[in-house]
Structures are given as C-alpha cells and as structure tokens.
Amino acid sequence: MSTPSLPVSQSQGTRTLSSVSVSGFTRLCKGLALVLVAAHLVLNFFPSAITYVALIPARTIPFAWNLITAGYVEQTLHGVLISIVCLLFIGKLLEPVWGPREFLKFIFIVNTLTSLCIFITAIALYYITRQEIYLYTPLSGFHGVISGFLVSIKQIIPDQEIPFLKIKMKWLASISLLCCIALSFWIIEATTYLPTVIFGTYMSWIYLRYWQKKPETKLKGDPSEDFAFSTFFPEFLRPVIDPIGSIFHRLLCGRSDASDDAEDYNLGSEPLPGSDPIEASRRRERGARALEERLANERLATSQSAGELHTSGAGNV
C-alpha cells in the first residue's frame, strides 16, 4: 500500500484562502448564477408565478415540480446577491475537486431532498397545529445548497483558517446554522430561511457521509471520525449528541452502530481503500492541491498578460 502524502499545513491553507482572486469562476457556476438571476426576474415581472415555482405545501400536489424548482428561486434581491456570491466563490473551491458532473449532482440532490423534507415537515405541523400558514407560505431559495457547500468545505479543507478571522473552515456550517437560528428569534423573515438551512445542512451531510461515490475507491461515503455528525457541535456536547446521532443513523441507514459501518468497508481483516482516516486526509489534500493549482494557473495567466501588455507598449513607443 502506498504511503500517504503529508497533509497540507495550516499556514499554507491560510495563504491559499487569502490569495483567492475574483477571476476564474467556473463556467458551470456562472451558468447557475444566471439561472438564479433569471428566476428572480421572472418573479418580479410575473408575481403570480410564485404559485407554480415556489414550494407551497398545499399546492405541491399536483404541482410536484416545485420540489425541484423552489431551490433555484430567490424571492428577495439580497437573497439573490448572497446566493450568487457564495455560489461563485465556494464553487470555485469545490468544482475542481469533484468535477462538474458531481458538483451539479450534489446541488440537484441537496435541493430536491431539502424541499421534500420541508414539504413533509409543513404537512406534519399543519396536522399538529391546524394552522394554515404552514400550508400556504411560499418557501424557496438557494440557501439550502449554500449550507450544503459549507458542509462540503468541512469535509475537504476542515483545518484551514479564514484569513483575518482565525476560524477554521470546519466550523462554518455550524456557525451559519447557529446564526440563522438566533436571527429567527428577532427577525420574522429569518424564520422562512431556517427550515431550508437546517435541512440543507443535514441532507448534504447525509449525502456526503453515506451516498457520494468515490471513483478512485469504488466506495460510497466518508466514514471517517472527523466527519461524524457530532463534529458539528462543540466538544462538551458530543457525549449528548452521539446517542442522538446513532438513532438517526439506524433510521436512515439501517446500521446499528459504528462497527456495522466498519464491516461495510472491510474485507476480512484488511480495510478497503477510503475506509480510514488516511483516505479522508488524502481527500482533503486533493482539495487543497486542486485549489493551489488553480491559483497558480491564474497567477501565471496574469503575469503573461502583463508581459504582453508591457511588450505591446514598448513596441508602440
């Protein structure tokens, strides 16, 4: 078995993130940004369209397509701007690691599952409270996927720090969710975002933890301890969270405990590739390496352009 490469240092990760430029956004991310802008403009010019494209639980049957379309419709201007900025910059980190097909697949699955969970929750709350607000409030937005992106960053480059803030990337998803919950107590509008953020975070973790295929190993998911559900919480809460996480683990995945998870990734006594922390470390290193290569290419292209302009200016003189 080949010896794993050394992990990228924390200081290198900080330099990497601080040097991300505004250029070089991927073509797929630009296309998705145009979709978000177009959907918002449609709502501005045709307000009645929200009945057909947003998630309104009472109208989801027979308008079942809104389980898909709702995730790409932002109802507010600031929602569009935040979603586009996050899509372009975070997509620039994730797409080189996953590839365009897996990146688009992640967005589609997280969006659809998030809408489905919101629909089921709204119906359940209506039958419990008999309040029709749960049935007729239009819910939509790309923020579920943005929350999922933060979970992906936790998986790929968890120990790198945000420049100037000294916060590790692995805490972004938890901080975002905590802020959204806190804002919902003071801002009524924030309560409409909360279900999408919660389910977007959890569904993306479910997908990355158990379902995402890894072509290099032919296995699914990320069983490493560094990506367990309890790692989204502070250390002192994990003894309480672990039993709760194991319940959902059994309900959603049909596995009784961590030993079952290990059996799925072992053949006899030899662990299969990707079933241990080494594979998780390699995945994170690949993410950092892909980002470094993209930044190096951008710097090279910039220096070449500057050289051409200098040569052209000298010739004109």
UniProtKB/TrEMBL annotation:
Entry's transmembrane regions: 32-56, 76-94, 106-127, 171-188, 194-211
Domain of life: Eukaryota
Gene Ontology cellular component terms for the protein in this record: Golgi apparatus; membrane
Location in or out of the cell: Membrane
One of the GO biological process terms: retrograde vesicle-mediated transport, Golgi to endoplasmic reticulum
The keyword Transmembrane helix belongs to this UniProt entry's keyword annotation: yes
Biased composition (Basic and acidic residues): 279-297
Pfam families: DUF1751
Topological relation to the membrane, as annotated: Multi-pass membrane protein
SMART domains tied to this protein: DUF1751
Swiss-Prot/TrEMBL keywords: Membrane, Transmembrane, Transmembrane helix
UniProt-annotated stretches for the region Disordered: 262-317
Protein name: Rhomboid-like protein 19
